[in-house]
Automatic annotation (TrEMBL):
Protein name in UniProt: YibE/F family protein
Organism from which the protein derives: Clostridium kluyveri (strain ATCC 8527 / DSM 555 / NBRC 12016 / NCIMB 10680 / K1)
UniProt key word Transmembrane: yes
Keywords: Membrane, Transmembrane, Transmembrane helix
Lineage, uppermost ranks: Bacteria, Bacillati, Bacillota, Clostridia, Eubacteriales
Domain of life of the source: Bacteria
Amino acid sequence: MFFIISLAVIGGKKGLKSIITLIITGFVVIKVLIPLIIQGFNPTLVSSLVCIFVIVVNLLIISGKNEKTLAAIIGTSGGVLIAGIIAVFSNFIIRVNGLTDEEMQSIIYTAQNANFDFSGLLFAGIIMGALGAVMDVSMSIASSIKEIGSAKPDMTVKELIKSGMNVGKDIMGTMANTLILAYAGGAMYIMIMVSAYSYSTSISTAIDQDIIAAEILKALAGSIGLVFAVPITAVVSAILVKSYSNKKG
């Protein structure tokens, strides 16, 4: 409650919009995503559709209907889906699910489905985990390009893309760290396991453990998706801003 009040008081109108988006996101995840996965729907497909819905609704509420929002939606969707594709492709090779036998048995019992798609569940966790950071990066770049385009309407698309990429490069490093640290914070017990395990064996052997490899895959896939969101957003935003400027002129 203190968090909501602080967000509303300090953030003002934007803070209230943020509260609305948080409520929508929480509702969709708890009341739509999780029940559909438990009922046996494909986690990969369900999480992809839910993420796209969350991206579109949240960005429209926060920034309204304009070229900046459209660019951020495309950039975020592209980055998140790339993260998911990398995760699926990588998991096709290494085949991990990131769960212990006890956790898998509990999920099978809860879902009443012996054919539960655990790899799909890993995919869902990766794109949901990457969503917030990628959305932040995409909106920052789209907003910067729109402001630059408004201040200097004579700039070309190429120049706007270059400016957007410069902004993206500055954001990229810190947001990649934010994403990895978020995964690390949520998997502190696994890092302790790696450290303890490495006393009796090599680091490479510790990484080969299913649950450890899954966490590394989450962090890498999410970070790569974030990196790709930068050029996608920069290109799309520059084209849309310049197109809108030409129509307005």
